[in-house]
Protein backbone atom coordinates (compact mmCIF):
# COMPACT_ATOMS: atom_id res chain seq x y z
CA UNK A 1 0.00 0.00 0.00
CA UNK A 2 1.59 3.25 -1.05
CA UNK A 3 1.18 6.64 0.57
CA UNK A 4 -1.33 7.75 -2.04
CA UNK A 5 -3.75 4.90 -1.53
CA UNK A 6 -5.56 5.91 1.65
CA UNK A 7 -6.39 3.64 4.54
CA UNK A 8 -6.08 -0.09 3.77
CA UNK A 9 -9.36 -1.98 3.69
CA UNK A 10 -10.46 -5.59 3.68
CA UNK A 11 -10.29 -5.49 -0.13
CA UNK A 12 -6.49 -5.12 0.03
CA UNK A 13 -6.41 -8.47 1.83
CA UNK A 14 -8.69 -9.98 -0.79
CA UNK A 15 -6.35 -8.73 -3.55
CA UNK A 16 -3.36 -10.16 -1.66
CA UNK A 17 -5.37 -13.43 -1.24
CA UNK A 18 -4.85 -13.22 2.52
CA UNK A 19 -8.64 -13.47 2.74
CA UNK A 20 -10.28 -15.96 0.42
CA UNK A 21 -12.98 -14.94 -2.02
CA UNK A 22 -14.76 -16.54 -4.94
CA UNK A 23 -13.08 -14.96 -7.93
CA UNK A 24 -15.18 -14.58 -11.07
CA UNK A 25 -12.71 -12.68 -13.25
CA UNK A 26 -9.20 -11.34 -12.83
CA UNK A 27 -6.63 -9.55 -14.94
CA UNK A 28 -3.59 -7.42 -14.17
CA UNK A 29 -5.70 -4.37 -13.32
CA UNK A 30 -8.94 -5.59 -11.73
CA UNK A 31 -10.37 -8.33 -9.54
CA UNK A 32 -14.02 -9.46 -9.63
CA UNK A 33 -15.32 -11.65 -6.80
CA UNK A 34 -18.65 -12.65 -5.26
CA UNK A 35 -20.09 -10.41 -2.54
CA UNK A 36 -20.11 -12.12 0.85
CA UNK A 37 -23.66 -10.82 1.48
CA UNK A 38 -25.38 -11.13 -1.91
CA UNK A 39 -28.39 -8.92 -2.62
CA UNK A 40 -29.33 -10.82 -5.78
CA UNK A 41 -28.69 -14.30 -7.24
CA UNK A 42 -25.64 -12.76 -8.95
CA UNK A 43 -23.79 -10.14 -6.90
CA UNK A 44 -20.19 -9.54 -7.93
CA UNK A 45 -17.82 -6.79 -6.80
CA UNK A 46 -15.24 -5.37 -9.21
CA UNK A 47 -12.27 -3.52 -7.74
CA UNK A 48 -9.07 -1.97 -9.05
CA UNK A 49 -6.03 -3.90 -7.83
CA UNK A 50 -3.90 -0.79 -7.55
CA UNK A 51 -6.06 1.53 -5.53
CA UNK A 52 -3.89 4.54 -6.37
CA UNK A 53 -6.19 7.06 -4.80
CA UNK A 54 -9.44 5.35 -5.66
CA UNK A 55 -11.28 5.18 -2.39
CA UNK A 56 -14.40 6.60 -3.96
CA UNK A 57 -15.56 8.63 -6.93
CA UNK A 58 -16.29 11.96 -5.27
CA UNK A 59 -15.43 13.52 -1.97
CA UNK A 60 -17.95 13.53 0.84
CA UNK A 61 -19.04 16.56 2.81
CA UNK A 62 -16.65 18.69 4.82
CA UNK A 63 -18.45 17.42 7.93
CA UNK A 64 -17.75 13.78 7.15
CA UNK A 65 -14.19 14.52 6.02
CA UNK A 66 -13.44 16.40 9.23
CA UNK A 67 -14.83 13.84 11.62
CA UNK A 68 -13.71 10.63 9.99
CA UNK A 69 -10.78 8.95 8.33
CA UNK A 70 -12.27 10.08 5.04
CA UNK A 71 -10.42 13.34 5.61
CA UNK A 72 -7.42 11.90 3.80
CA UNK A 73 -9.30 9.71 1.33
CA UNK A 74 -8.08 10.39 -2.17
CA UNK A 75 -10.68 10.29 -4.91
CA UNK A 76 -10.98 9.78 -8.64
CA UNK A 77 -9.04 12.25 -10.79
CA UNK A 78 -8.80 12.68 -14.55
CA UNK A 79 -5.73 10.41 -14.53
CA UNK A 80 -7.96 7.54 -13.37
CA UNK A 81 -10.01 7.59 -16.58
CA UNK A 82 -8.41 4.44 -17.99
CA UNK A 83 -8.97 2.29 -14.90
CA UNK A 84 -12.50 3.66 -14.45
CA UNK A 85 -13.39 2.63 -18.00
CA UNK A 86 -11.72 -0.74 -17.48
CA UNK A 87 -13.84 -1.33 -14.36
CA UNK A 88 -16.99 -0.60 -16.34
CA UNK A 89 -15.91 -2.79 -19.24
CA UNK A 90 -15.24 -5.58 -16.74
CA UNK A 91 -18.88 -5.29 -15.63
CA UNK A 92 -19.85 -6.38 -19.14
CA UNK A 93 -17.41 -9.29 -19.07
CA UNK A 94 -18.81 -10.39 -15.70
CA UNK A 95 -22.43 -10.05 -16.87
CA UNK A 96 -21.62 -12.23 -19.90
CA UNK A 97 -19.86 -14.85 -17.80
CA UNK A 98 -22.70 -14.92 -15.27
CA UNK A 99 -25.42 -15.13 -17.94
CA UNK A 100 -27.31 -12.03 -16.81
CA UNK A 101 -27.24 -9.99 -20.02
CA UNK A 102 -31.06 -9.88 -20.05
CA UNK A 103 -30.86 -7.40 -17.21
CA UNK A 104 -28.27 -6.42 -14.68
CA UNK A 105 -27.44 -3.41 -12.57
CA UNK A 106 -24.07 -1.73 -11.99
CA UNK A 107 -23.89 0.28 -8.77
CA UNK A 108 -21.32 2.45 -7.05
CA UNK A 109 -22.22 3.47 -3.52
CA UNK A 110 -20.35 6.73 -3.05
CA UNK A 111 -20.04 8.05 0.50
CA UNK A 112 -21.94 7.55 3.76
CA UNK A 113 -25.34 8.71 2.49
CA UNK A 114 -25.13 6.05 -0.23
CA UNK A 115 -24.18 3.37 2.32
CA UNK A 116 -20.59 2.97 1.12
CA UNK A 117 -18.97 0.74 3.73
CA UNK A 118 -15.62 -0.17 2.14
CA UNK A 119 -13.50 2.80 1.06
CA UNK A 120 -11.76 1.10 -1.83
CA UNK A 121 -13.67 2.01 -4.99
CA UNK A 122 -15.83 -0.87 -6.23
CA UNK A 123 -18.60 -1.62 -8.69
CA UNK A 124 -21.45 -3.88 -7.67
CA UNK A 125 -22.82 -6.03 -10.52
CA UNK A 126 -26.26 -7.36 -9.60
CA UNK A 127 -28.57 -9.61 -11.58
CA UNK A 128 -30.46 -12.86 -11.84
CA UNK A 129 -33.75 -11.42 -10.60
CA UNK A 130 -36.19 -8.65 -11.51
CA UNK A 131 -34.75 -5.34 -10.30
CA UNK A 132 -36.89 -2.54 -8.92
CA UNK A 133 -36.62 1.13 -9.77
CA UNK A 134 -36.11 3.43 -7.94
CA UNK A 135 -33.83 1.26 -5.82
CA UNK A 136 -34.60 3.00 -2.51
P1 LIG B 1 -20.43 -0.92 -0.15
O1 LIG B 1 -21.50 -0.91 0.90
O2 LIG B 1 -19.15 -0.29 0.36
O3 LIG B 1 -20.85 -0.36 -1.47
O4 LIG B 1 -20.16 -2.45 -0.45
C1 LIG B 1 -19.22 -3.23 0.22
C2 LIG B 1 -19.58 -4.65 -0.08
O5 LIG B 1 -18.50 -5.48 0.30
C3 LIG B 1 -20.80 -5.14 0.71
O6 LIG B 1 -21.81 -5.54 -0.21
C4 LIG B 1 -20.26 -6.31 1.52
O7 LIG B 1 -21.18 -7.39 1.60
C5 LIG B 1 -19.00 -6.69 0.78
N1 LIG B 1 -17.96 -7.26 1.61
C6 LIG B 1 -17.50 -6.75 2.78
N2 LIG B 1 -16.53 -7.53 3.28
C7 LIG B 1 -16.37 -8.56 2.40
C8 LIG B 1 -15.50 -9.70 2.38
O8 LIG B 1 -14.67 -9.92 3.25
N3 LIG B 1 -15.62 -10.53 1.30
C9 LIG B 1 -16.51 -10.31 0.30
N4 LIG B 1 -16.54 -11.21 -0.69
N5 LIG B 1 -17.34 -9.25 0.30
C10 LIG B 1 -17.28 -8.39 1.33
TrEMBL record:
The organism of origin for this protein: Acer yangbiense
Lineage summary: Eukaryota, Viridiplantae, Streptophyta, Embryophyta, Tracheophyta
Active site, per annotation: 122 (tele-amp-histidine intermediate)
Histidine triad motif, short sequence motif: residues: 120-124
GO molecular function, one term: adenylylsulfatase activity
Coiled coil: none
Domain HIT: residue ranges: 10-136
Listed name of the protein: HIT domain-containing protein
Amino acid sequence: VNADSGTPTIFDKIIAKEISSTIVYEDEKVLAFRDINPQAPVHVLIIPKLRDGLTMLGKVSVYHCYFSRLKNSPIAEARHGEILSHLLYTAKIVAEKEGILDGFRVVINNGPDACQSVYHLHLHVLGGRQMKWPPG
